[in-house]
Structure formats: C-alpha cells, structure tokens
Design goal:
single chain, mainly beta, seven-stranded mixed beta sheet, 11 strands
Length: 112
C-alpha cells in the first residue's frame, strides 16, 4: 500500500524558512513523479512543485520559483521542499502526491 507522510510544517515569520518532508513507502521509489500541493483556507488546492524521481527534473509554480527547492533522497525514499523567503500568502496546508495517493498534509503558517 502506498503511504505518503508529510512533516516539517509550522509557524514562521515572513522571510523565514521551513523544510517539508514527504516520506514515501509501498512502491518502487525510482519510477514516479511526486508533487507538492497546497491549499489555503477558502481556496482550491494548487500545485507548488514536482520532481521526477528517476532523473531529478523538477518544475515549480511561478509563485514559488526562486524561493522553493524540491529534492529527493532516494535512499530514505523522501522528497523535500525547502521553502525560503516565506510570505504570508504561502500559508496553507501542504500535501505531497503520487498518482492518486495523497498524504495527510502539514500546516504551514507564515506571519507578517
């Protein structure tokens, strides 16, 4: 069974940093694309970043380019999202996704 477990969220001041982790299990880690999504209160869930596990190619939403970095540790089967220069509008629940599987989410709150 595929399992995705996010961690690393919290409360941070604007301009600060957080690193989110998505620990994956239950599938062959090297063959998929894993994405980070977020959902703010009253808004639709949106894609933030994704990475191809096999070749490391990644993509970012325009709103986070230059501030967020996605990476993987294929030994630990974990995908990271390093978030720098955080803004209040980054406040949301962050989820990782593999195909139709979602994690439970981790809350990120950025105070102004």
């Amino acid at each position: 069974e595929v399992q995705l477990v996010e961690s690393g969220g919290g409360l941070v001041q604007a301009g600060g940093s957080l690193r989110l982790s998505c620990a994956a299990s239950g599938f062959t880690f090297g063959r998929y694309i894993i994405g980070w999504f977020r959902q703010a209160p009253g808004k639709e869930r949106e894609g933030v970043s994704c990475i191809s596990i096999s070749d490391g190619r990644s993509d970012y939403a325009d709103s986070v380019k230059g501030r967020f970095t996605i990476s993987t540790d294929n030994v630990k089967k974990t995908v990271y999202l390093q978030m720098n220069s955080l803004k209040p509008e980054d406040t949301a629940v962050y989820y990782c996704r593999l195909d139709d599987y979602w994690g439970q989410g981790t809350q990120v709150t950025v105070s102004s």
